[in-house]
Design brief:
Blueprint: E1 2-9, H1 20-35, E2 44-48, H2 58-66, E3 72-76, H3 82-96, E4 101-109, H4 116-124, H5 139-154, H6 158-172, H7 186-191, E5 194-196, E6 199-200, E7 209-217, E8 226-235, H8 251-261, E9 271-274, H9 279-289, H10 297-302, H11 319-322, H12 328-342, E10 356-363, E11 368-376
Parallel strand pairs: 2-3, 2-4, 9-10
Antiparallel strand pairs: 1-7, 1-8, 4-7, 5-6, 8-11, 10-11
Length: 377
Amino acid sequence: MSFIVGSGLTRFGRHEGRDTLALMTEATDLALADAGLARGDVDAVICGYSTTLPHLMLATVFAEHYGLHPGYAHTVQMGGATGFALVMLAHVLVQSGTAKRVLVLGAENRMTGQSRDSAIQTLAQVGHPVYEVPLGATIPAYYGLLASRYMHEFGSTEADLAELAVLMRQHAQRHEGAHFRQPITVDEVLASRPIASPLKLLDCCSVSDGGCAFVVAAEALGAHPVRLAAARQHHNAQHISAAAQPTLCGAGACTGQALAEAGRKLADVEAAAIYDSFTITLTLLLEEIGLAPRGKAGMLAREGHFGRDGALPLNLHGGLLSYGHCGVGGAMAHLAEMHLQMTGRAGARQAHRAGVALLHGDGGVLSSHVSLVLEAA
Protein backbone atom coordinates (compact mmCIF):
# COMPACT_ATOMS: atom_id res chain seq x y z
CA MET A 1 0.00 0.00 0.00
CA SER A 2 1.11 3.55 -0.70
CA PHE A 3 -0.47 7.01 -0.65
CA ILE A 4 -0.67 9.88 -3.08
CA VAL A 5 -0.18 12.79 -0.72
CA GLY A 6 0.28 15.68 -3.12
CA SER A 7 -0.46 16.57 -6.73
CA GLY A 8 0.47 19.46 -8.96
CA LEU A 9 -0.97 20.18 -12.40
CA THR A 10 -0.09 23.12 -14.64
CA ARG A 11 -2.39 24.79 -17.09
CA PHE A 12 -2.24 22.96 -20.44
CA GLY A 13 -1.95 24.85 -23.72
CA ARG A 14 0.69 27.24 -25.06
CA HIS A 15 3.58 28.15 -22.73
CA GLU A 16 5.84 30.32 -24.86
CA GLY A 17 9.49 30.28 -23.81
CA ARG A 18 9.08 27.53 -21.20
CA ASP A 19 10.91 24.25 -21.70
CA THR A 20 10.54 20.80 -20.13
CA LEU A 21 12.54 21.70 -17.03
CA ALA A 22 10.54 24.89 -16.41
CA LEU A 23 7.25 23.00 -16.65
CA MET A 24 8.60 20.19 -14.45
CA THR A 25 9.59 22.81 -11.89
CA GLU A 26 6.15 24.40 -11.78
CA ALA A 27 4.40 21.05 -11.41
CA THR A 28 6.81 19.95 -8.68
CA ASP A 29 6.39 23.19 -6.74
CA LEU A 30 2.63 22.63 -6.78
CA ALA A 31 2.87 18.98 -5.74
CA LEU A 32 5.23 19.61 -2.83
CA ALA A 33 3.08 22.49 -1.59
CA ASP A 34 -0.01 20.30 -1.83
CA ALA A 35 1.73 17.60 0.22
CA GLY A 36 3.09 20.09 2.76
CA LEU A 37 6.64 18.88 2.10
CA ALA A 38 9.99 20.52 1.38
CA ARG A 39 12.54 19.57 -1.28
CA GLY A 40 14.71 17.83 1.27
CA ASP A 41 11.86 15.47 2.17
CA VAL A 42 12.04 13.77 -1.24
CA ASP A 43 14.26 10.67 -1.34
CA ALA A 44 13.49 9.38 -4.86
CA VAL A 45 12.75 10.96 -8.25
CA ILE A 46 11.16 9.19 -11.20
CA CYS A 47 10.09 10.96 -14.35
CA GLY A 48 8.92 10.24 -17.86
CA TYR A 49 10.72 10.95 -21.10
CA SER A 50 10.45 14.22 -23.02
CA THR A 51 10.64 14.35 -26.81
CA THR A 52 11.70 18.01 -26.62
CA LEU A 53 14.48 17.26 -24.11
CA PRO A 54 15.56 13.71 -25.02
CA HIS A 55 18.35 13.47 -22.46
CA LEU A 56 19.44 9.94 -21.53
CA MET A 57 19.33 10.78 -17.80
CA LEU A 58 16.41 13.16 -17.45
CA ALA A 59 15.60 12.24 -13.83
CA THR A 60 19.04 13.26 -12.58
CA VAL A 61 19.09 16.28 -14.90
CA PHE A 62 15.94 17.51 -13.17
CA ALA A 63 17.25 16.58 -9.72
CA GLU A 64 20.31 18.76 -10.33
CA HIS A 65 18.18 21.57 -11.75
CA TYR A 66 15.78 21.52 -8.79
CA GLY A 67 18.37 20.99 -6.06
CA LEU A 68 17.51 17.42 -5.10
CA HIS A 69 19.88 14.65 -4.03
CA PRO A 70 17.77 11.49 -4.28
CA GLY A 71 18.83 8.04 -3.22
CA TYR A 72 16.98 6.67 -6.24
CA ALA A 73 16.42 8.22 -9.69
CA HIS A 74 14.87 6.68 -12.77
CA THR A 75 13.50 7.78 -16.16
CA VAL A 76 10.77 5.66 -17.76
CA GLN A 77 9.53 5.29 -21.34
CA MET A 78 6.25 3.48 -22.03
CA GLY A 79 4.41 5.81 -24.39
CA GLY A 80 1.05 7.04 -23.17
CA ALA A 81 1.11 4.52 -20.32
CA THR A 82 4.23 6.15 -18.85
CA GLY A 83 2.44 8.46 -16.42
CA PHE A 84 0.62 5.66 -14.63
CA ALA A 85 3.68 3.40 -14.92
CA LEU A 86 5.65 6.03 -12.98
CA VAL A 87 3.07 5.94 -10.22
CA MET A 88 3.16 2.14 -10.18
CA LEU A 89 6.95 2.20 -9.89
CA ALA A 90 6.73 4.69 -7.00
CA HIS A 91 4.17 2.37 -5.36
CA VAL A 92 6.58 -0.57 -5.68
CA LEU A 93 9.52 1.47 -4.36
CA VAL A 94 7.54 2.51 -1.31
CA GLN A 95 6.23 -0.97 -0.64
CA SER A 96 9.75 -2.42 -0.85
CA GLY A 97 11.15 0.13 1.58
CA THR A 98 13.55 1.52 -1.03
CA ALA A 99 12.05 5.00 -0.65
CA LYS A 100 9.59 6.79 1.61
CA ARG A 101 8.63 9.87 -0.40
CA VAL A 102 8.86 9.63 -4.18
CA LEU A 103 8.53 12.58 -6.52
CA VAL A 104 6.82 11.47 -9.74
CA LEU A 105 6.72 13.93 -12.64
CA GLY A 106 6.23 14.41 -16.34
CA ALA A 107 6.23 17.58 -18.44
CA GLU A 108 6.92 18.73 -21.95
CA ASN A 109 6.62 21.80 -24.16
CA ARG A 110 5.34 19.63 -26.99
CA MET A 111 3.22 22.41 -28.53
CA THR A 112 5.83 25.19 -28.69
CA GLY A 113 9.04 23.15 -28.52
CA GLN A 114 8.82 21.14 -31.73
CA SER A 115 7.38 21.46 -35.20
CA ARG A 116 4.28 19.59 -36.30
CA ASP A 117 6.33 17.48 -38.73
CA SER A 118 8.84 16.60 -36.01
CA ALA A 119 6.07 15.50 -33.66
CA ILE A 120 4.48 13.33 -36.35
CA GLN A 121 7.81 11.72 -37.23
CA THR A 122 8.74 11.07 -33.60
CA LEU A 123 5.46 9.45 -32.62
CA ALA A 124 5.20 7.40 -35.82
CA GLN A 125 8.28 5.47 -34.77
CA VAL A 126 6.19 3.30 -32.45
CA GLY A 127 5.23 1.45 -35.63
CA HIS A 128 7.04 -1.66 -36.81
CA PRO A 129 10.29 -0.54 -38.50
CA VAL A 130 9.85 -3.00 -41.40
CA TYR A 131 6.11 -3.61 -41.81
CA GLU A 132 4.56 -0.29 -40.76
CA VAL A 133 6.82 2.79 -40.61
CA PRO A 134 8.06 2.53 -44.25
CA LEU A 135 4.43 2.60 -45.43
CA GLY A 136 3.99 6.07 -43.95
CA ALA A 137 1.51 5.32 -41.19
CA THR A 138 1.12 7.80 -38.32
CA ILE A 139 -0.41 7.38 -34.87
CA PRO A 140 -3.78 8.75 -36.06
CA ALA A 141 -3.65 6.34 -38.99
CA TYR A 142 -3.21 3.33 -36.71
CA TYR A 143 -6.14 4.43 -34.57
CA GLY A 144 -8.19 5.16 -37.68
CA LEU A 145 -7.71 1.53 -38.70
CA LEU A 146 -8.87 0.43 -35.25
CA ALA A 147 -11.92 2.69 -35.48
CA SER A 148 -12.91 1.19 -38.83
CA ARG A 149 -12.53 -2.33 -37.49
CA TYR A 150 -14.47 -1.48 -34.34
CA MET A 151 -17.40 0.01 -36.23
CA HIS A 152 -17.46 -3.01 -38.53
CA GLU A 153 -17.52 -5.45 -35.61
CA PHE A 154 -19.96 -3.73 -33.28
CA GLY A 155 -22.16 -1.57 -35.51
CA SER A 156 -21.20 1.69 -33.85
CA THR A 157 -21.10 4.93 -35.87
CA GLU A 158 -18.90 7.98 -36.23
CA ALA A 159 -21.58 9.93 -34.36
CA ASP A 160 -21.26 7.51 -31.42
CA LEU A 161 -17.53 8.23 -31.25
CA ALA A 162 -18.24 11.95 -31.46
CA GLU A 163 -20.38 11.79 -28.32
CA LEU A 164 -17.24 11.19 -26.27
CA ALA A 165 -15.49 14.24 -27.72
CA VAL A 166 -18.54 16.34 -26.85
CA LEU A 167 -18.57 14.94 -23.30
CA MET A 168 -14.89 15.69 -22.69
CA ARG A 169 -15.40 19.26 -23.88
CA GLN A 170 -18.37 19.66 -21.53
CA HIS A 171 -16.16 18.59 -18.63
CA ALA A 172 -13.28 20.86 -19.69
CA GLN A 173 -15.59 23.88 -19.60
CA ARG A 174 -15.50 23.64 -15.80
CA HIS A 175 -11.68 23.62 -15.60
CA GLU A 176 -9.84 26.91 -16.08
CA GLY A 177 -6.59 25.07 -16.87
CA ALA A 178 -7.98 23.19 -19.88
CA HIS A 179 -6.48 23.79 -23.31
CA PHE A 180 -9.90 23.78 -25.01
CA ARG A 181 -13.08 24.94 -23.27
CA GLN A 182 -15.33 26.06 -26.15
CA PRO A 183 -18.40 23.79 -26.30
CA ILE A 184 -18.79 21.53 -29.34
CA THR A 185 -21.61 19.45 -30.78
CA VAL A 186 -21.71 16.06 -32.46
CA ASP A 187 -22.36 17.77 -35.80
CA GLU A 188 -19.26 19.95 -35.31
CA VAL A 189 -17.14 16.89 -34.55
CA LEU A 190 -18.43 15.15 -37.68
CA ALA A 191 -17.81 18.28 -39.79
CA SER A 192 -14.27 18.86 -38.51
CA ARG A 193 -11.30 18.26 -40.81
CA PRO A 194 -10.60 14.61 -41.70
CA ILE A 195 -7.37 13.33 -40.13
CA ALA A 196 -7.36 9.54 -40.63
CA SER A 197 -10.68 8.13 -41.75
CA PRO A 198 -13.01 7.75 -39.93
CA LEU A 199 -11.35 10.04 -37.35
CA LYS A 200 -11.74 13.80 -37.67
CA LEU A 201 -9.82 16.60 -35.99
CA LEU A 202 -12.12 16.72 -32.96
CA ASP A 203 -11.81 12.94 -32.49
CA CYS A 204 -8.11 13.51 -31.75
CA CYS A 205 -6.40 14.83 -28.63
CA SER A 206 -4.69 18.18 -28.71
CA VAL A 207 -0.94 18.81 -28.64
CA SER A 208 -0.16 20.90 -25.56
CA ASP A 209 2.55 22.27 -23.31
CA GLY A 210 2.15 21.36 -19.66
CA GLY A 211 3.26 19.24 -16.74
CA CYS A 212 2.10 17.23 -13.76
CA ALA A 213 3.72 15.88 -10.60
CA PHE A 214 2.85 13.78 -7.55
CA VAL A 215 4.34 12.78 -4.24
CA VAL A 216 3.82 9.09 -3.47
CA ALA A 217 4.57 8.21 0.15
CA ALA A 218 4.67 5.24 2.49
CA GLU A 219 2.38 7.00 4.97
CA ALA A 220 -0.79 9.06 4.71
CA LEU A 221 1.04 12.37 5.12
CA GLY A 222 -0.45 15.85 4.94
CA ALA A 223 -4.03 16.96 4.58
CA HIS A 224 -4.97 15.21 1.32
CA PRO A 225 -3.83 11.58 1.17
CA VAL A 226 -5.42 9.04 -1.18
CA ARG A 227 -4.63 5.33 -0.88
CA LEU A 228 -3.13 3.59 -3.91
CA ALA A 229 -4.62 0.15 -3.32
CA ALA A 230 -3.36 -1.67 -6.41
CA ALA A 231 -1.37 -1.23 -9.62
CA ARG A 232 -0.95 -3.74 -12.43
CA GLN A 233 0.42 -3.85 -15.99
CA HIS A 234 -0.33 -5.83 -19.14
CA HIS A 235 1.66 -5.83 -22.38
CA ASN A 236 0.07 -6.94 -25.60
CA ALA A 237 1.73 -7.16 -29.03
CA GLN A 238 3.79 -3.98 -29.45
CA HIS A 239 2.80 -3.46 -33.10
CA ILE A 240 -0.72 -3.35 -34.51
CA SER A 241 0.29 -5.62 -37.39
CA ALA A 242 1.11 -8.34 -34.82
CA ALA A 243 -2.13 -8.02 -32.84
CA ALA A 244 -4.19 -11.21 -33.12
CA GLN A 245 -7.44 -9.41 -32.27
CA PRO A 246 -7.06 -5.61 -32.65
CA THR A 247 -10.22 -4.70 -30.75
CA LEU A 248 -9.23 -6.84 -27.74
CA CYS A 249 -6.03 -5.35 -26.36
CA GLY A 250 -5.65 -6.58 -22.77
CA ALA A 251 -7.17 -3.64 -20.92
CA GLY A 252 -9.84 -5.85 -19.41
CA ALA A 253 -7.31 -8.34 -18.10
CA CYS A 254 -5.16 -5.54 -16.67
CA THR A 255 -7.98 -3.81 -14.80
CA GLY A 256 -9.34 -7.15 -13.62
CA GLN A 257 -6.00 -8.01 -12.03
CA ALA A 258 -5.73 -4.59 -10.38
CA LEU A 259 -9.24 -4.80 -8.94
CA ALA A 260 -8.56 -8.32 -7.65
CA GLU A 261 -5.33 -7.13 -5.99
CA ALA A 262 -7.31 -4.36 -4.26
CA GLY A 263 -10.03 -6.80 -3.19
CA ARG A 264 -12.54 -4.94 -5.32
CA LYS A 265 -15.02 -5.64 -8.12
CA LEU A 266 -15.91 -3.49 -11.10
CA ALA A 267 -19.26 -2.73 -9.44
CA ASP A 268 -17.37 -1.03 -6.58
CA VAL A 269 -15.92 1.65 -8.88
CA GLU A 270 -17.51 5.06 -8.29
CA ALA A 271 -15.42 7.19 -10.66
CA ALA A 272 -13.09 6.47 -13.55
CA ALA A 273 -10.21 8.08 -15.43
CA ILE A 274 -9.52 6.35 -18.73
CA TYR A 275 -6.94 7.24 -21.39
CA ASP A 276 -8.50 9.10 -24.31
CA SER A 277 -5.91 9.96 -26.94
CA PHE A 278 -8.67 9.51 -29.54
CA THR A 279 -12.39 8.96 -29.21
CA ILE A 280 -11.82 5.38 -30.41
CA THR A 281 -9.20 4.85 -27.68
CA LEU A 282 -11.64 5.83 -24.97
CA THR A 283 -14.43 3.78 -26.57
CA LEU A 284 -12.38 0.60 -26.88
CA LEU A 285 -10.98 0.85 -23.35
CA LEU A 286 -14.32 1.60 -21.68
CA GLU A 287 -15.96 -1.33 -23.39
CA GLU A 288 -13.20 -3.90 -22.95
CA ILE A 289 -12.83 -3.01 -19.27
CA GLY A 290 -16.57 -3.49 -18.87
CA LEU A 291 -17.56 0.08 -18.01
CA ALA A 292 -19.84 0.08 -21.06
CA PRO A 293 -21.38 -2.72 -23.16
CA ARG A 294 -19.79 -3.37 -26.55
CA GLY A 295 -20.92 -0.76 -29.06
CA LYS A 296 -22.65 1.36 -26.40
CA ALA A 297 -20.06 3.78 -24.96
CA GLY A 298 -21.26 6.63 -27.16
CA MET A 299 -24.87 6.00 -26.24
CA LEU A 300 -24.05 6.05 -22.51
CA ALA A 301 -22.12 9.30 -22.96
CA ARG A 302 -25.12 10.86 -24.72
CA GLU A 303 -27.44 9.73 -21.93
CA GLY A 304 -25.32 11.32 -19.18
CA HIS A 305 -23.98 8.07 -17.69
CA PHE A 306 -20.39 9.42 -17.61
CA GLY A 307 -21.27 12.96 -16.52
CA ARG A 308 -20.44 14.63 -13.23
CA ASP A 309 -23.85 13.65 -11.85
CA GLY A 310 -24.07 10.36 -13.73
CA ALA A 311 -23.65 6.78 -12.59
CA LEU A 312 -19.93 6.74 -13.42
CA PRO A 313 -18.21 10.16 -13.60
CA LEU A 314 -15.42 9.97 -16.20
CA ASN A 315 -12.43 12.24 -16.90
CA LEU A 316 -14.05 15.22 -15.23
CA HIS A 317 -11.19 17.58 -16.12
CA GLY A 318 -11.80 17.05 -19.86
CA GLY A 319 -9.26 14.34 -20.59
CA LEU A 320 -6.64 14.37 -23.30
CA LEU A 321 -9.32 15.31 -25.81
CA SER A 322 -9.99 18.70 -24.18
CA TYR A 323 -7.81 19.37 -21.13
CA GLY A 324 -4.88 18.56 -23.42
CA HIS A 325 -1.99 16.22 -24.06
CA CYS A 326 1.61 17.18 -23.27
CA GLY A 327 3.14 13.71 -23.55
CA VAL A 328 3.80 11.92 -20.26
CA GLY A 329 2.03 14.59 -18.21
CA GLY A 330 -1.15 14.18 -20.27
CA ALA A 331 -2.33 10.97 -18.63
CA MET A 332 -0.99 12.16 -15.27
CA ALA A 333 -3.58 14.95 -15.42
CA HIS A 334 -6.26 12.24 -15.15
CA LEU A 335 -4.77 11.19 -11.81
CA ALA A 336 -4.36 14.78 -10.63
CA GLU A 337 -8.07 15.34 -11.23
CA MET A 338 -8.94 12.12 -9.42
CA HIS A 339 -6.81 13.19 -6.46
CA LEU A 340 -8.86 16.39 -6.23
CA GLN A 341 -12.14 14.51 -6.66
CA MET A 342 -11.31 11.99 -3.94
CA THR A 343 -10.30 14.70 -1.49
CA GLY A 344 -13.36 16.88 -2.21
CA ARG A 345 -11.44 19.74 -3.81
CA ALA A 346 -12.68 19.74 -7.40
CA GLY A 347 -15.02 22.72 -7.00
CA ALA A 348 -17.59 23.02 -9.80
CA ARG A 349 -16.44 19.66 -11.18
CA GLN A 350 -16.94 17.75 -7.93
CA ALA A 351 -18.71 14.41 -8.38
CA HIS A 352 -21.28 13.30 -5.84
CA ARG A 353 -19.16 10.26 -4.95
CA ALA A 354 -15.61 9.14 -5.69
CA GLY A 355 -14.57 6.85 -2.87
CA VAL A 356 -13.22 4.09 -5.13
CA ALA A 357 -11.63 5.01 -8.45
CA LEU A 358 -10.29 3.06 -11.40
CA LEU A 359 -7.66 4.58 -13.67
CA HIS A 360 -6.31 3.05 -16.85
CA GLY A 361 -3.70 4.22 -19.35
CA ASP A 362 -2.34 2.75 -22.54
CA GLY A 363 0.85 3.24 -24.51
CA GLY A 364 1.71 2.69 -28.14
CA VAL A 365 -1.29 1.55 -30.15
CA LEU A 366 -3.15 -0.17 -27.28
CA SER A 367 -0.03 -2.25 -26.69
CA SER A 368 0.97 -1.47 -23.07
CA HIS A 369 -1.46 -1.01 -20.22
CA VAL A 370 -1.37 0.20 -16.61
CA SER A 371 -4.33 0.09 -14.21
CA LEU A 372 -4.51 1.80 -10.83
CA VAL A 373 -7.12 1.43 -8.09
CA LEU A 374 -7.46 4.32 -5.64
CA GLU A 375 -9.41 4.46 -2.40
CA ALA A 376 -10.27 7.44 -0.25
CA ALA A 377 -7.96 7.38 2.77
